[in-house]
Amino acid sequence: MFDIKRQEIDWGGKKLTLETGQVARQADGAVIATLGETVVLCAVTAAKTVKEGQDFFPLTVHYQEKYSAAGRIPGGFFKRERGATERETLISRLIDRPIRPLFPEGFYNETLVIAQVMSYDGENEPDILAMIAASAALALSGVPFLGPIGAARVGYQDGEFILNPTLEQLEKSDLDLVVGATRDAVMMVESEANELPEEVMLNAVSFAHESLQPVIKAIINLAEQAAKEPWELVSYDDSALAAKVEELCYDNFDKAYRLTRKAERVDALSKAKTVLDEAFPEADPTEKLRIQKLAKKLEAKIVRTAILKEGRRIDGRDLKTVRPIRSQVGFLPRTHGSALFTRGETQALVSTTLGTADAEQMIDGLTGLHYERFMLHYNFPPYSVGEVGRFGAPGRREIGHGKLAWRALHPVLPSKADFPYTIRVLSDITESNGSSSMATVCGGCLALMDAGVPLTRPVSGIAMGLILEKDGFAILSDIMGDEDHLGDMDFKVAGTEKGITSLQMDIKVAGITEEIMQKALEQAKGGRAHILGEMSKALGEVRSEISNLAPRIETMSVPKDKIRDVIGTGGKVIREIVATTGAKVDIEDDGTVRLSSSDPANIEAAREWINGIVEEPEVGKIYNGKVVNIVDFGAFVNFMGGRDGLVHVSEIKNERVNKVSDVLSEGQEVKVKVLEIDNRGKVRLSMRVVDQETGAELDDNRPPRENAERRGGERPRRDRGPRRESGDRPARRDMEPEFAPAFLRKDS
Is 0.90 topped by the overall pTM? Predict the structure, then answer.
């Protein structure tokens, strides 16, 4: 019934299994990939015909994590998997980026790749496994795919690279790097690093490329057993048509690409293309698409030749020069921190908002519920490129660019213990002509510094490009939008003066060599240093204080055995502290307490209250208190937060008090001195020895008889003979019946 084919390899000390023929047999290609007890199913289907008027390759990749894979039930009302989470979107892009360039030009059949996590062991990450399963499923499907690719994650600790580190190892690692590559070249790099040198990053990529070779071999072996017949790809001989397009458009295209301003260049190109409609009035839709493609190829030829042969770029720069930079901080008056970063015709308006712990993002995923204190959101409105388009919820591009900037800035943020704020960076791209994600990194860094967030070091980012031909290559610093579209590589590098914090690479050709990557990293280092220098002109160092508009957060610690007292039954005490003082109070399991408010006085009031709960009162010390209950013999006063003590009627004033309520009322603020704490914890207080205005201690003016006892001496007594020792006096219940009081006698 089942024709099962399987490949097993020992990969980094773990067993990797690729299997087909048992599940999803109606798909064009389907593979179950297993590593440890993590299992991913990937299925590929492709349309057999091309839609009329289709002029691009409609590849869609969906990655989905099923809660059942980790033995969990989804939260929320519907209790089922809903729309893609941010993590699922990012991993979908991770799969898409290395495989998309490996489909041949002219293949426009709609293709769908679905990768689903069916089992997750909490140790082996499913993203790498999904990339491998997608590559294997495509290799089996018969669609024209110039793969396969392999994928690997690399960690770095104590000078050693770690292949596919576990979650526990990643927490201690200075590097989280994912590489997708063919047998001969690297196709995609995604990483976050703890300010690592260029040499280490390059060696990490090489280590990953070498380590994933056994995976590629296993996919090829599986394809030899189970691959379907390859699809026939329709091709056209367009040499004559291409010559005609070049004859009609070359001169005008060349003039257009000598215009340095984007708007003027776009307008000139649009006018130059009108001659094609006039030259081919009877062309059918398919032929018109071929003509448009040939015109685009001609544009690429003009730009690429000028760069390789003349060293001349579209805007007149040489290969290494960065466009003019202008930075401003404090651009928005009511934000906690803001910056306007402009580089050429790319501009990012970035703000930083500081919040308390309750503003952290709650994330529910396969690994369970956790909280994120640093968020970076990137928006790309259509007006930034002078277009009319969809405006609303962020798409995959916005989520991907935002995560790249997040990875660049995350390594230099202070720890939660040192800076207990929730941090949100918001980047709105107001102009775009290439590398808006790196503008977000630079603007985000300045906005964080403007908000007073103590970064380890400032971070800058730069996008590098590549023109690769058979007779040579050129590396471009700070690429423009057209250089990105017409070039062969988008290589983004972010970091500090010390080292790299994030590296992302996407290739449009069949991979690049180590030599090209090394040169790109070296050239990017110089560009990053230049940009850091330009950024320092706006703000050289982090502001010494956070904005007065931001909440103040202070930290204190309480003993673990006192946490229950601070919270109170059902949270009664902590709610009362918040309601009374106006400060937010967050307490953690280790006894760390974070107090936050825009008013420092509120924080201090909450601190005193909590100290009053956890500290033990000292005899002889004066405290502020509040009368909470009045009785005939005195008043109970709440002091030190949740602790009560008794002020006896004789300790209220230095004069006779006939009725306590004549002097005190409930809720009245008083100052009290601790006189005594008995062995049951009962506290005796005094008001009369404290100046109720200043809180200063007064001389004790009590008559000598009462004073003697307070001073620890003996009271004056009449001579009644020798004092009986306490042990000589019989207990009342041990008295002889005839001497005992009537109510103790047995016969009473």
Answer: no
